[in-house]
Structures are given as C-alpha cells and as structure tokens.
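On clarity, I found the account of how folds are encoded harder to follow than it need be. What matters is that the chain and its backbone geometry are given together, residue for residue. For the editor and my fellow referees, an illustration may be useful. For illustration, here is how one protein appears when written out as sequence plus structure tokens:

___
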Amino acid sequence: MRKRLFLIILLISFFSSAAVSIITSKIYYDLYEADAKSQLQTILRLTKEESNWENPQAINLSVNKVLSAVNYSIRFTIIDIDGNVSFDNRAKNEALENHRDRPEIKSAFKNGSGEYIRRSDTISTDMYYYAEKINENEVLRLAREISSINQVFVNILPLIIFIFVALFVIVYVCANIFVRKILKPINSLAGSINEVADDADNSVIHVYEELEPISRRFREQKLKINQYISELEHERDTINIITGNMKEGFILLNKDKNVLSINKSGKKMIGNDKFNPNNGRNIIELTRNKNILSKIDASFEENRHVVYDLEDGGKYFRYYLSPVKEQDNVTGMLMLIEDITIQKNAEIIRSEFSANVSHELKTPLTTIIGFAELIKEGLISDMDDIKKYSSMINNEGLRLISLIEDIMRLSKIEEKADINEKSLLNLREMLENVVSLLQSKADKSNIKLSIKSSDVYMEANKSYISELLYNLIDNAIKYNRENGSVAAEVNENDDFVVISVKDTGVGIAKEHLGRIFERFYRVDKSRSKDTGGTGLGLSIIKHITELYDGEIEVESAEGEGTEIIVKFPQ
C-alpha cells in the first residue's frame, strides 16, 4: 500500500504538471494565433481601398508602407476573378499557378472574405492566408508565417523540464513524509479490521482514538450492506420466480432499448430461445421483426401505451408496450406478450360460422318466400303446379328444420352438454340399429349395407355415439354411386375402439381432405343440395370424436370411394 500511495502521488503530480503544461502551451498558441490573424486582417482592411492597388506605383507604395510598419514579413498577392495572379511581392518575375481553387480565394469571391492555414513545405512552417475583395473582379490576399504549436512547445520545453525536475524533488520528499504519517495509524488498524467489520466485541480491538469513528462506521456499514444485499437477493429471487412462471412474455428495456430482463416465455414467444440478456444487449439482437421494432420506437418517441396484435407462424400474440416514466422522461419500457391464438381462432371460427349460418338459412327461406308469393299472387293456378311448388316449399322447410337441428346438436356437443351421462354401450348393437334406420334410404339407390362387428363395449353418452354412427353411414350413402356399397366395421385394436365406414362413392379430391370437417364445407355443393345435406355432418362427427379424446383418419381418392376411421381410447 505504501508503494501504491507513493506512486499515485507521483503520478498525479506528473500528469497534473503535464496537463498544465499542455493547456498553457495551447492557450498561449491560441492567443498567439488569434493575435497574428487579427493583425493581418486589420492591415488588409485598412489598406484595401481600391485606389491603393489600382496601378503598380500605388501597389508598391502600399506594400512598402505596410512592411515598414511591422517587424515581420508579409506576402501580398492580387488575384483576378479567373484565378490569375496579377501581383505578388514574393514572385515579381515568376509565373505563378492559377489560384482560383484556393479555399481563401473562393470564399473571398463568394462571401467577401476568406481565410485558411496550410503548411508551406518550402519554409517548413504554417502560413496564414487572409483575402478580401477590393473590387468585383479582384481579391487582395495577405499571408504571414505562423509558428506551429510544436514549435511553441519546443521553445518552452526547457522551462517545462526545469519545472518537472523541481516539482519531482519536492513531491518525492513530501510524498514520503505524507505516506509515512498516513500509514502508521492505518497499519495499526489493519490487523484488527476484520474483527471491526464483523459482529465481534469491539472491546478487544485496540485502535487509535482518531480511528474509533472509522472502525465503528465500518461495522455499521457492513451490517447495513449485508441487510441490504439480503433484501435485494430476496426481491430478485421473488421477481425471478414470478416472471419465470408467467405464461405471458415479460421483457424490460432501458432508455437505450437494451434488454435488462426477459423471462423464458418472452424468449419463446418472440422466437429467440437462446437469447442471453447479459452485457446490455440491444432489442435488435433479440428480434429483427420490423413491426415489433417500429412499435417500440413509436411508444418511446410518443411516450404512450401501445397495444397491438401480431401474427407469427400461425400463432397470434398481443403486445402491451408501457413506457416507464420519471418526471415526464421515458427511462425504460415494460413489454408484456400474451398468446391469443385460441381467442383469435375462436373469433375467426365464430365469424365464419355466423356468415355460413346466415347464408344457409337465407337460401331455403328465399325459396319458400318466392314460391309462396307466386301462389299468393295467383301466378300459379294449375293444381299440378301448385302441388309441385308446394312440395318444393315443403322440402325447403324440412331442409331448414334439419339445418337448425344440426346447428343445435353441434352447439350442444361443443358445450359438452350431457357428457357426464355415460353408460356402457354395445357398439355392435348400436351399429345394427343405425343400419336398420338407414336401410330404406340405401335401397332407393340400390346401395348394399354390410356390417362386420363383434361385441365391442365403450363407456360414453348413447345419444352422441348414435349420432356419430348415423352421420358416418348416412354420409356414405349420400355420396355413393348407384348400386354401390357401404361397409361398416367395429373392432378393438391396441387399446383403441376402432369404427370404420367405407363406401364406393365419388371419393374426395386431395385438396379438399384438409377441410371436410369444417362447418358447412361441401366438396360438391350441387350434389349436397340434391341429397339434402347441411354441411354439418362431418363437423358433428369430428366434435364428438374430440369430446372423447379420439382420432379421425380419412383415406380417399377422387373416384375411388372414401373410408373414415374413428379411434377412441379405451
């Protein structure tokens, strides 16, 4: 410690002296340069009358008059508007290069005056040039030598060295005495400093009276620091536990948009699981998404709370950006990210469902109203036509009722109504009952219905399973060919109850397979209308299957029939 203190004092003295020397030299040089410029500018302004430079005699007289009044050399140059030198007292018989592109000449013609400092390689020193217009076509330029700051420093270097040596000797002696006096009582305290800082009894610690307040202060401060550290660690651990278990993303930024804190959900939602916020990494290292970055910038700049939704890879996230303010100044930002995929998808499904229901209800109602008005207005008087159109009204009414019943059934299934009303069902018996109900419908198209099943049991709501079997076989009949067949099978396979219905119908094209379970989706709308389909049958099958954690598989090819396989875990 002794050497360190000694060295610090010497270094402080050295650098302080060096700084003072440099600053003094710079100030002296600035004053010297300013004075030199001021003298030259004053001379030019006093002598720039056009009459002083209109002919060689006047020019020589003006130059000699100025040079005799100063104790330094001045170069006089007159340049015309084309940059040609018409007079130069240093090069009277020499041809000089064009001066049009010289900075001080360009500035003088443009602004009335111009100045510039550049180094002369000929005399190895800096030259100061100052020019002013003496008329519209000519500029008078004066130049003089200015010593560089290096030259100024060299001139005062002997004085600086002398001051350094004298100061070093004085500081060395004073530092030696000063360090010895400081360290003597501190060395006495050093042996017992740990005991002073701990909770030990201070009565066994012997220190100088002057150091008693210091030792007492050490102990008090250490107790406070330990308590403060414990509180901070507790708060940190509590915050980490809370944010770590949040399903929402949590990101904290400072005013420079550096990430101070981020939880696991935040990394996952923003798409950068490996991000480490250490070392003050900027938000742009966390995400390059332009939408996110632009919203953050807008929230910072406008000092306002921002909420916006973002779609990313089929998922929807809602961002809450809240600037952290301190006396109307934004010092940071708190970002919360919420996964709203379920809500968004529900909104989309609800919107599509509402639109489809409106359309499906409107179509039969339009037909019914249209035919009814024809009959009402007496436009149809023939009894055969009345029977025909009345039959159409009846069919559309029945279709409307069927549609409403399917919608109500689907709504009931989605709400999981009666799901707890379970009983042990024999699927073979239920399948036989459904086939017997649909046999007459199959006979109309000469479709052969066949069953292959053993006694397979399942615990579920009888109404739901009966609805599922009915829709599977009814769908196979509706979209079958004349003289076709439908094969229904129920069996047990690897802890699953498997229900399979296969037909020889028109089949489903590959591009439609992913959407056939959507509400009101029809592969062939004209055929569906002819068969009386509502477009909800397969959707009901899907929802009943999901109600019991089941799976659906579809195997089909256009023109080759379709097989739908439903699997329920036992």
